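for the writeup, i need someone to sanity check this before i put it in the appendix. the sequnce is what the collaborator sent (i think, or maybe the updated version? ugh). structure was predicted straight from it, no edits. if anything looks off just tell me and ill rerun, i have time this weekend
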Amino acid sequence: MTASVASPVASPASSPAAVIELVGVGMTFRPPDGGEPIIVLEDIDLSLVPGELLAVAGRSGSGKTTLLDIASGLCRPTSGGVWWFGRPLRELAGEAEDRLRRTRFGIVFQSGGLIASLTAAENVALALPSTRRSADARGHVLDCLDQVGLAARANHLPRQLSGGEQQRVAFARALCNDPAILIVDEPTANLDRRTADSVIEVLLALMDGTRAMLVASHDQHLLVGARRTMTLD
């Protein structure tokens, strides 16, 4: 899919402050049975700088999740390039890429991805490096939960939380390493309007002037709070 953007996107050479840039990115899936290739994304340019929230809009199936996966390095595009902090992603192979994603990125998947047998605090603590998973780290975990208004539910299991609360726990986990980039996929999907609005309120409150945020959503209530909106069509 192609994209339209509310403001111009510069190239890596002219945007040294960008934390993520995609230039000419395309993604084509080729069926294993040799059928007709499926073009999901085509010639996408994107530039994300610190302190801004860029929302990716578009109908279901337009490629929003695929675009976020490419931006976060979870899959490689079939054309074009991706830059993290001014450096081509293709130069960050293996462990170096994983380390940078683990320490600089916070990722919230559409499903939330909480582990059912762990409490809210234990789910958040999973994002900590093994060297910090100790008693003295609990205060930090509670601080992260407090940022999303759930410190009082730290010892509750996911099944004891509402859908909106589970999503906020996922936010807290993504914040645990104080990431420079927060990538969020459809945070209000399958939530009622009141709950969705509370999740949007928390998400917008996480904008601290330095953290870059890339959010995929079709929720107009969220899109109006974004600094820029990219629409896949």
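The beta strands are 3-5, 20-29, 38-48, 53-57, 79-84, 87-88, 105-108, 181-185, 212-216, 228-232. The CA atoms of residues 16 and 70 lie 20 Å apart.
thx in advance!!
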